[in-house]
Amino acid sequence: MSELVPDSMSAKGLEAFLHEKIPLAKAMGLHVAESNAHRLVFEAPLDKNINHLGTAFGGSLHALPTLACYAGLWTLMREAGIDGHVVVKRSQAFYRTPVTGKLRAVCVRPPAAVVKEFIRALQRHKKARMDLTAIVEGAKGEHAVDFSGSFVALV
Predict the structure, then answer these.
(1) Which pLDDT score, from 0 to 100, does residue 37 have?
(2) For residue 6, is it within any domain?
(3) Which residues have CB under 8 Å from 88's CB, separation 6+?
(4) Is the pTM of this model over 0.90?
């Protein structure tokens, strides 16, 4: 476990961990705006993620919710006392509308029963998969991007 991540999994600690371990997170200007039992909210400034049209770059709009889901699963493992790795198996994004301001990805944590079954499978088989979703909000809070991914955890 990295010394940067406190037991409480604070937003500041999670952000420092991601900046240290995933250089893209730092380059994007990723900020963990919210990390609690219900959801993770990641933000990034437009100026570090802009395209030639003055809107958010599509790759950034895919990377930010990927990171939110990755971190969501990683923190669930940490909260269960499991030290392991998370990798992306599959992901897709549906781009509904351009993002013209700050990028904001929201990943809602899965229900407790889903988490419990995932942790049980991970402990038993040393490998488990979880499907997660996130959205990137537009300027008025609407869904600008719908993201879904399949993540695999290994211990």
Answers:
(1) 87
(2) no
(3) 66, 70, 149, 150, 151, 152
(4) yes
